[in-house]
Structure formats: structure tokens, C-alpha cells
UniProtKB/TrEMBL annotation:
It comes from the Bacteria. It holds the Pfam family Thioredoxin_9. This is Thioredoxin. It comes from Pustulibacterium marinum. InterPro entries: Thioredoxin-like_sf.
Length: 201
């Protein structure tokens, strides 16, 4: 895709993107209707969506940003958009998105917009992870609609856990995925905040 096409695509995606509150409202509606953002109806995806909604609500109340980190975030002076690709059924997105919101809310120069991956595959394909459409994915986009940095689909510490397990066992098991969610709970967002701060250099 040529540069002008990419800039136009990103500009349109930002314009159409949801706020965090709008995304929460969407997920709440899906939960009430027993649905998910998946284009293919699935009871499993609906159950994941319900669980993830509860996770996000809990994290909204419990996540705290360290005072020193707040100072670093507040001092960031570039005007950027954080465009995040997610789906309601994604467990990693539910653990990470509330933290992304808390960090972005501390700096008026950061605009947070959220889009669904499966409705925006052209954007997703600009930022593959090892060739895969892994989410959540955060793109840092400047005022010229250029991608200047990115984050995801997990904080580096969690990525290492996943890579090590996959290298040893070939694929991620349901038991490992449950372990990863427990890791997120114990970490309390610290590694996610640490990696997000690296986007502000």
C-alpha cells in the first residue's frame, strides 16, 4: 500500500474510531444480547465477551498509575492518536485496554480511538505480529497520519511467557491461557504501563 493510501486509511479509521466509553457501551449491549463482536455467532465468543466486560469494569476501578509514571506521561508533548485494534472476545485486550485508557487520559496530547480488527483488516495488516493479526494492537499515529510506534499484542514480559511456552509445547493450551490471565491479575498493569511509557520517548 502506498504512503498516501496509508495516510488516508489511518485518517478515516481515526475519524470512525470509538472512544473508550463508546466501546464499553458497545460491549455492554453485546453482553445483554448474548453476542460478541465476532462476525460468526458463537456461544464461546459470547461467554468470553461477558467475562471480558467484567474484567474491564473491575480494572476501571482498581488500576492505579504510579505518581512518578504520571509525571512522565503528563510531560509528553507530541500530539498523537493511539489507535487500538480489539475484539470483545479477546482476553488480552480486556486486560490491556483499561490501562491504555488510564494512561491516555493523563495527557491531553494523546487521543485514544478504538476500532474492531475484523472490520478493519487493512489497518490490521499494517502492523502484523510475526505475520499474524494479533490483538490488541496499539498504533501511535502522528498529526501527519504516520505510524511512529506501536505496542501489543501483550506487554514484553507476557510475550516472553507466551513465546517460551509455544516454543516448548508448540501451541497455547487452555490451561496456559488461564495462567496468563492470572499473570495479568497479579501484575496489576505494571508491565503494560512500563511498555506504554516507552511509546513516549
Amino acid at each position: 500500500m502506498q504512503t498516501l493510501q496509508v495516510h488516508t486509511l489511518l485518517k478515516e479509521s481515526i475519524a470512525e474510531g470509538m472512544s473508550y466509553d463508546a466501546y464499553l457501551s458497545l460491549v455492554a449491549t453485546l453482553v445483554a444480547e448474548g453476542k460478541s463482536t465476532s462476525k460468526i455467532p458463537s456461544e464461546e465468543m459470547s461467554l468470553f465477551t461477558k467475562l471480558n466486560y467484567k474484567r474491564m469494569l473491575r480494572l476501571n476501578k482498581t488500576i492505579k498509575i504510579d505518581g512518578r509514571d504520571e509525571e512522565v506521561i503528563a510531560s509528553y508533548s507530541k500530539k498523537v492518536t493511539w489507535l487500538v485494534l480489539v475484539e470483545s472476545w479477546c482476553g488480552d485486550a480486556a486486560q490491556i485496554l483499561p490501562i491504555v485508557y488510564k494512561v491516555a487520559a493523563l495527557n491531553k496530547n494523546i487521543t485514544l480511538k478504538i476500532i474492531l480488527r475484523d472490520e478493519n483488516l487493512d489497518v490490521m495488516d499494517l502492523c502484523l505480529t510475526n505475520g499474524a493479526r494479533s490483538i490488541p494492537k496499539l498504533l501511535v499515529i502522528n498529526e501527519d497520519y504516520e505510524i511512529i510506534n506501536d505496542f501489543g499484542p501483550r506487554p514484553e514480559a507476557a510475550l516472553k511467557l507466551v513465546d517460551d511456552f509455544r516454543e516448548q509445547y508448540g501451541k497455547l493450551t487452555p490451561e496456559f491461557k488461564q495462567f496468563l490471565q492470572l499473570w495479568y491479575n497479579k501484575d496489576r498493569g505494571k508491565n503494560t504501563v512500563k511498555d506504554l511509557l516507552q511509546l513516549m520517548v
